[in-house]
Amino acid sequence: MNTVHLRLMVIALLALLVSGCASVPMASPEEDRVAKQFRPTPGKATIYLYRNEIFGGAIAMQVMLDGRPMGQTGPETYFRWVVEPGRHTISVAAENVAELSIDTRPGGIYFVWQEIKMGLFMARTRLELVDPQRGMAGVNESSLIAAPYGGGGGSAAPSNTSTSRGGSGGAGATSSSQ
Question: Contact 54/22 with Cβ under 8 angstroms?
């Protein structure tokens, strides 16, 4: 490869790196501030899905809650969903599909961390139910995503029926990553 081609490739790569952060629609600063108060909603459960890493920043990842599209995550972003108590399943599509089911209770607040990993062709993802202290810290490092179903704190998905406790580092959750 001659030096002209090499220089062009380096310039193109640098341009991609500088402009390569995924863009997702963001909620207002006021909605973000209110969501970070971590207040329970009476009779409902609250789920936070956060992605507080910059790694894989050029890739927005499609998120589904109970089979319904919620939008995409980008680097240092989060969703907040107020849902009916019961079993809820979060799915994220990347090079793989990561899935996590959580059994929620009325008044419960649950934190799911979306980890980004190196993949063969693009980024991979993994979901983990984390304890409230770690979850609140991760959400506080991130900004709220505007979403068609509950990104700003509204209702998200239909209710389900299972009621075992989650939200404490993995209890009440099942996950898979393909």
Answer: no
∠ Cα 117 121 124 (to 5°): 25
What is the residue-level pLDDT of the chain in tens, covering all 178 positions? 565 444 434 444 333 343 345 678 999 999 999 999 999 999 999 999 999 987 666 678 999 999 999 999 999 999 999 999 999 999 999 889 999 999 999 999 999 999 988 877 778 899 999 999 999 999 999 999 996 654 454 445 433 333 233 343 344 565 555 5
Q: Which residues contact 148 (CB under 8 A, 6 or more apart)?
A: 69, 70, 71
Contact between 50 and 112 under an 8 Å Cβ cutoff? The reply is yes
DSSP-derived 3-state class of residue 153 = coil
In degrees rounded to 5, what are phi and psi of residue 72? -130, 150
- The whole-angstrom distance between residue 57's C-alpha and the CA centroid of its chain comes to 13
Contact (CB, 8 A) for 173 and 166: yes
The model scores a pTM over 0.85: no
